[in-house]
Amino acid sequence: MYPASFEYQAPASIDEALTILERYGDEAKVLAGGQSLLPLMKLRFASPRALVDLNRIEGLGELFEDNGGLMIGALVRHAQCERAELLRGRYGVLGDAAPQISDPIVRNWGTVAGSLAHADPQGDWGSALMAAGAELQARGPDGTRTIPLDELFQGPFTTSLEPTEIAVWVRVPDPGPNAGGTYLKLERKVGDFATVGVAVQLSFDNGKVGRAGIALTGVGPCNLRATAAEEALAGAELDDDAIRSAADLAAKGADPRSDVRGSADYKRNIVRVFTERGLRKAAEAAGRREEP
Ligand SMILES: Cc1cc2nc3c(=O)[nH]c(=O)nc-3n(C[C@H](O)[C@H](O)[C@H](O)COP(=O)(O)OP(=O)(O)OC[C@H]3O[C@@H](n4cnc5c(N)ncnc54)[C@H](O)[C@@H]3O)c2cc1C
What CATH number is associated with residue 255? Predict the structure, then answer.
């Protein structure tokens, strides 16, 4: 099916895009990679009066590290993350997630920021970035505001972004020198959305866990932070007991529904198994970089 007709706007700057968005209010939609929005428009689940295409705005495709961490511009594509050396090592939770998103066509177009704005509970970036402690920098008519991902996701396909706001940067804090992470995803076949995904990011301090980030995909109304597991690990020795009890806490914190991908019990058990496996893998990744 073809989408309903719409006006097409291609601003050359964020300021211009914001002016256009203000003019249309909630009748306009921002277009980034189009990999979620265009299918919805073709199915007539979305019929915006105007699309505001960000793709001609310069500088939004930048991915770089600065003193405060990693900056991911609004037009950074999944494929760019898949290839980025920067997203291995300490930011490995992101580098692991990128190639597991759909297929090369979707990865060539789809953007990290667009995935966050779309807020699909089965979206992989939401969990990977939540585990990494990321926040979104959005610009709107009243200036710039920073939104932690826990506050961004409000429910399925719902965020705290206003229709007149643009997500301009995703900022990931520096995890420190002794850090590692991973993203584990169970899918029915290559390219499928997650049955369950678990993102783990660990930073070590004097041999103990400093910060633990654990977030879950596909087992709740939005990407979920496994807060109880994270809190239990902070400051702890990462031994077998700590790993097993954190995995149990993560499974308890999940809120899965039975569907064609599996029963709620099955998904909860996968959360437990993947959290345990993810913690061991993240610790190993962090440890490897402590070697000369
Ligand atoms: C066949 C297929 C399989 C897929 N499989 C997966 C998968 O396995 N895992 C996964 O995580 N995702 C998957 N996706 C989704 C894909 O990752 C999308 O790229 C992503 O969800 C949206 O990014 P986008 O840049 O394409 O956004 P768009 O489609 O352009 O926009 C999506 C929504 O976000 C808004 N938006 C976009 N950018 C901004 C911004 N900068 N500021 C404010 N609002 C913005 C738009 O207005 C729209 O509401 C799949 C998609 C397809 C078509």
Answer: 3.30.390.50
